[in-house]
């Protein structure tokens, strides 16, 4: 029994291309069957040893079939099948029923769908011949493969495109730029469908591409980035080895020429000129210039230098890293009067020079720069700027110390009569000095004291008269010279301790002195005992000739109980001219010392109680003392309470009390409170206003009210009126028994003669022709008796007298 597999006529034409290929079996070049698997049962040897009813072959089907009918693949047939319909063919496996169908009776296989080899290259199927009635297998199941035959249906594609690449400018011919790769999805093992060649469509004659490798290279030498820096290439990849009918794909390649340092810096001009004011401060920028360089980035970096000129040290130049400009800045102040122009030679040099392009050089350039200094109105300048003067601290006020002078740098003439000198008082707060505004002569304004301030640092101002905004400043250092005006004193406050058992001639203290003065040759002090102590029997003093002196004892057996403290006056004289001296007292305390001479107890010996006096006796004595003190305090308190007051409350003149209302008038515009017409009437002559004395004291005073008013104040001038009035009041106060026994201030509101405003006192009594009566005050009770006595009785006796 043989299994017959037949292919279509067009498939046979494809199979004939292969070597040793027949319709019954597919064999390789060596004669062995082409099997999809390495299973031994499908091997060629097994087929020869066993007689099988199936004849196995591979089926081939073209991809991308575009016909309307199902594509015939092949035919299955078994020897068991006698054509009577008892055998039925069954197809299973990958794509069975969905892609491949089989006629159960005839065994014809068709492909019902369009196949794509790039999606699936082959399908594995299983064939089975069964009894149509019992479905029992009549043949063993066998496996076969349907391969999808490739056609050229995919164009090459650049999966990594579009490309960007860079190549240095000035590269030699054939320099590799980049490699492009195209991929074809067709079967590379069958035909030329996947064999690709490359070509350049756009980008010639600058670049070329290798057909097989896709490597792009430069086609021209020395391409200049400064001329053109970018190129866009179109590369084509075509299958079928580039033959007619092949499919193709393209991609773009952007090639950028990277910069190299092949261009030297160049100044646009050979000379530059700039102007600058002489007043610009250091380090101001004077000018900027730039050398042009066609390169970019690090290849255009450059350094600037001043290589020649007449301004060394005045100017310097540096590179602005952002703009690559040369920045000329000032290093020293300018002075138009000294030098009005400067000439410089500037060099610009590339910082990163490529030795490969040294033939393109030199990579530097020079330019001449002229800087013109412009004159400005400058403030006065002191010569010298710092002046040192000396003055004795004994100098009198007005002593001339020295002189300062300033000049105008614009005219080079002294400013005498052109400016004014003054002292910045912030530097002379206590105003020790003055300066003459016209001459600049400095003199003392106050007494000086070197010990308080030995150096005065003054700032002198010179101001131009024509332009006060121009102010020059100079420094004057005045050193105060010392005189011997301070006496020497003890260096410290000495505490001298003397042991009771001190031996005669023992040094108990070494003293030294200090002096605020500073003589040029140094201090020399002379020590001695003061005249009052020169003949004492206890101590002596020895001058050591080294600005110190030693105090020694004259005898032994000092007794602390007899005298615990000795005051020793020491006379100290300095070596100044004239010499000054001072007497300083040295306190010597007698102490009880141990065997090593260390003081144990000093000062007065403590009082010890008699042994026969008990504690009870002491408490009794203390109680008596306290009782006496209490009695004395009680007596003093009683005497104080009985002491008569200086002022008699009942007889105090109430007219001397001042009552403040703090009620202000409205001025001349206030016509409601006062009649301003009366104030302006200067022809009305008022009676004199004299304070009256109280009725109670009028009878005891030698000067009564009638005596006080004996002088007609109306006929006297104002100054005489006040003088007479104060004199009368003084006499009244002197005879007043209730006046205090000490000086006191008494205020009288006497307005003087001729007041056109009349008296504004609320206590003024009505005149004789007034109908005002104060008799009702007598009926108000005891509390108003004093007030009634003041107003009712005087009105009946002295009509017309005003009381204040």
TrEMBL record:
Keywords assigned: Calcium, Cell adhesion, Cell junction, Cell membrane, Glycoprotein, Membrane, Metal-binding, Repeat, Signal, Transmembrane, Transmembrane helix
Signal sequence, start to end: 1-25
Top-level taxon in the UniProt lineage: Eukaryota
Chief location bin: other
GO cellular component: adherens junction; catenin complex
SUPFAM superfamilies per record: Cadherin-like
InterPro entries in alphabetical order: Cadherin, Cadherin-like_dom, Cadherin-like_sf, Cadherin_CS, Cadherin_Y-type_LIR, Catenin-bd_sf
Topology with respect to the bilayer: Single-pass type I membrane protein
Annotated TM spans: 617-639
Keyword Phosphoprotein: no
A GO BP annotation: cell morphogenesis
PROSITE patterns, alphabetized: CADHERIN_1 (PS00232), CADHERIN_2 (PS50268)
Name recorded for this polypeptide: Cadherin 7
Organism placement in taxonomy: Eukaryota, Metazoa, Chordata, Craniata, Vertebrata
């Amino acid at each position: 029994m043989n299994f017959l597999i037949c292919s279509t006529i067009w498939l046979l034409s494809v199979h004939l291309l292969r070597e040793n290929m027949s319709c019954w079996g597919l064999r390789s070049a060596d004669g062995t069957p082409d099997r999809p698997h390495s299973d031994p049962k499908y091997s060629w040897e097994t087929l020869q040893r066993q007689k099988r009813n199936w004849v196995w072959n591979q089926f081939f089907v073209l991809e991308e079939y575009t016909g309307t009918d199902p594509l015939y693949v092949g035919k299955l047939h078994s020897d068991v099948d006698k054509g009577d319909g008892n055998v039925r063919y069954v197809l299973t496996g990958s794509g069975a029923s969905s892609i491949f169908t089989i006629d159960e009776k005839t065994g014809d296989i068709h492909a019902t769908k369009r196949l794509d080899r790039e999606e699936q290259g082959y399908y594995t199927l299983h064939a089975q011949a069964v009894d149509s009635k019992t479905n029992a297998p009549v043949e063993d199941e066998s496996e076969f493969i349907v391969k999808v035959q490739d056609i050229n249906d995919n164009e090459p594609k650049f999966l990594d495109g579009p490309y960007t690449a860079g190549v240095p400018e000035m590269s030699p011919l054939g320099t590799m730029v980049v490699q492009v790769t195209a991929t074809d999805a067709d079967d590379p093992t069958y035909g030329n469908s996947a064999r690709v060649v490359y070509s350049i469509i756009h980008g010639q004659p600058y670049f070329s591409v290798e057909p097989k490798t896709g490597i792009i290279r430069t086609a021209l030498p020395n391409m200049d980035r400064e001329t053109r820096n970018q190129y866009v290439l179109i590369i084509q990849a075509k299958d079928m080895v580039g033959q007619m009918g092949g499919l193709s794909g393209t991609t773009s390649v952007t090639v950028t020429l990277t910069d190299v340092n092949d261009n030297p810096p160049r100044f646009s001009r050979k000379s530059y000129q700039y102007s600058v004011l002489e007043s610009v401060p250091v380090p101001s920028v004077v000018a900027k210039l730039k050398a042009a360089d066609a390169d970019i980035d690090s290849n255009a970096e450059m350094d600037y230098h001043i290589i020649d000129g007449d301004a060394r040290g005045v100017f310097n130049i540096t590179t602005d890293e952002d703009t690559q400009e040369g920045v000329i800045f000032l290093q020293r102040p300018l002075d138009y009067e000294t030098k009005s122009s400067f000439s410089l030679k500037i060099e610009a040099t590339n910082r990163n020079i490529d030795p490969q392009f040294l033939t393109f050089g030199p990579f530097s350039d020079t330019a001449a720069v002229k800087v013109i200094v412009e004159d400005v109105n400058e403030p006065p300048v002191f010569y010298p700027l710092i002046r040192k003067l000396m003055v004795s601290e004994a100098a009198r006020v007005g002593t001339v110390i020295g002189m300062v002078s300033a000049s105008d740098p614009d005219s080079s003439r002294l400013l005498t009569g052109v400016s004014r000198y003054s002292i910045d008082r912030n530097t002379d707060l206590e105003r020790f000095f003055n300066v003459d505004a016209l001459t600049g002569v400095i003199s003392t304004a106050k007494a000086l004291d070197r010990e308080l301030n030995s150096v005065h640092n003054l700032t002198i101002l010179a101001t131009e008269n024509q332009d006060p905004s121009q102010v020059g400043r100079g420094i004057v250092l005045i050193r105060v010279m010392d005189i011997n005006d301070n006496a020497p004193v003890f260096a410290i406050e000495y505490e001298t301790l003397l042991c009771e058992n001190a031996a005669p001639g023992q040094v108990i203290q070494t003293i030294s002195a200090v002096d605020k003065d500073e003589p040029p040759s140094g201090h020399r002090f002379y020590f001695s005992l003061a005249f009052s102590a020169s003949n004492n029997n206890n101590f002596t003093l020895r001058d050591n000739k080294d600005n110190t002196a030693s105090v020694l004892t004259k005898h032994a057996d000092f007794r602390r109980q007899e005298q615990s403290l000795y005051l020793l006056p020491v006379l100290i004289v300095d070596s100044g001219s004239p010499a000054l001296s001072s007497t300083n007292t040295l306190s010597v305390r007698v102490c009880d010392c141990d065997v090593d001479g260390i003081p144990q107890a000093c000062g007065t010996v403590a009082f010890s109680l008699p042994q026969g006096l008990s504690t009870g006796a002491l408490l009794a004595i203390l109680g008596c003392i306290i009782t006496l003190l209490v009695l004395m305090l009680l007596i003093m308190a009683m005497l104080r309470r009985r002491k008569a007051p200086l002022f008699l409350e009942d007889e105090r003149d109430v007219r001397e009390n001042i009552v403040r209302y703090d009620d202000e008038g409205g001025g001349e515009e206030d016509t409601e409170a006062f009649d301003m017409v009366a104030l302006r009437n200067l022809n009305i002559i008022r009676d004199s206003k004299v304070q009256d004395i109280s009725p109670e004291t009028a009878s005891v005073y030698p000067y009564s009210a009638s005596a006080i008013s004996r002088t007609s104040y109306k006929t006297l001038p104002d100054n005489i009126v006040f003088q007479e009035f104060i004199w009368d009041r003084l006499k009244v106060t002197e005879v007043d028994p209730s006046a205090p026994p000490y000086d006191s201030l008494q205020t009288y509101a006497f307005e003087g003669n001729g007041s056109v405003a009349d008296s504004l006192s609320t206590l003024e009594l009505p005149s004789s022709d007034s109908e005002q009566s104060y008799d009702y005050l007598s009926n108000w009770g005891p509390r108003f008796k004093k007030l009634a006595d003041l107003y009712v009785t005087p009105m009946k006796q002295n009509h017309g007298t005003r009381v204040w």
